[in-house]
Amino acid sequence: MFKGVKHGIRCPCGSRKDKVYDSYSVFSQHIKTKTHQKWLQNLNTNKANYYIENEELKITLQQQRIIIAKLEKELQNKSMTIDFLTQQLMSKNVSQKCVSDLLNFD
Question: What is the pTM of this model?
Answer without folding.
Answer: 0.52
